[in-house]
Fold this protein.
Amino acid sequence: MNPSKQNWIKHRRATAWSACGLAGVLLSLLATSCKREPSAESDASSVSDPPIAITIGEREVSLFELQAELDHLQSRQHPISRNREVFIESTVERLIAVEKAKELGLHQDPELRRQWENLLIGKLKREAIQRALDDVSVDELELETYYNENLDRYTQAGQVHLAMLYLSVPTSADDSQRESIYSKMAEARELALSLPADTHGFGSMAMKYSEEATSRFKGGDIGWLKQGLSQYRWPNEVIESAFKSADVDSLSDIISCADGYYLLKKIDSRDPIVRPLNRQLAHSLESELLKQKRQARQEEISASWAVEYSPTLNDETISKLKFASQPSAASQMAAQPFPAAK
């Protein structure tokens, strides 16, 4: 059996080691490092050549590395950080396992490497990016400017309540037929001008002068239309004209469209309602602006890193990548562990 392995087994079995074994050596190192303030010369030497606490094969673990690991575990109140011997034994076992894994080439596994990179990137984002993002803020002037620039989003569109007359014109109609239909609509407009003031929409005349199936029996009432919407079933010319009528009970001109003639009457209207920049809206806008500014700041940081490292792409080599459902031979070879060191 390997002598070092025999020594390790003895160490695991001997309870007296807690007083004078490896833990005692570590304690001596810690005590020595704290005895007196080193000179500049010795300090430079310690920085360049830190004291080695544990050696596993070719792996040397310095006192500083070991202390950093202990501090980390203590900060998390890990049980093994409460006892020197338990900590040392656990650390050595861990180091041996890591070295064995490396010997077998397990550290070359692509998935393991990617997981490690993901952890590293996550820490980078927390340490470097998040710190910069925490400094991003929004002042009152920015809030007001953003509010005014996006006022349409905080404005409830104006609405108009309309009555409509509609006479269709067949696609095969000649000029004479179109003129006849137009004359009938002109006649309806003249009659509408003399309707009693309390008439709802076009009243009963809608049944005679309108082919708009959903409204002709309701005085032509087609309900409320909201400004800025475009999903209405009537032609755009009709919708545009609907919001040009200024006064209630006013009539539009006859609107000529490809499918026929229209006449509108304004029954009622509602003015646009602008939501004020109150505390609730200001809080919502601040969150929105912060998100945008942080995103922009993160992109700036990423761009600065790209400039710093100046990545170079070898297009000729990259063009040889094979994107297929099955792994390529190269990726399979890369995934194989390295042969054990002899």
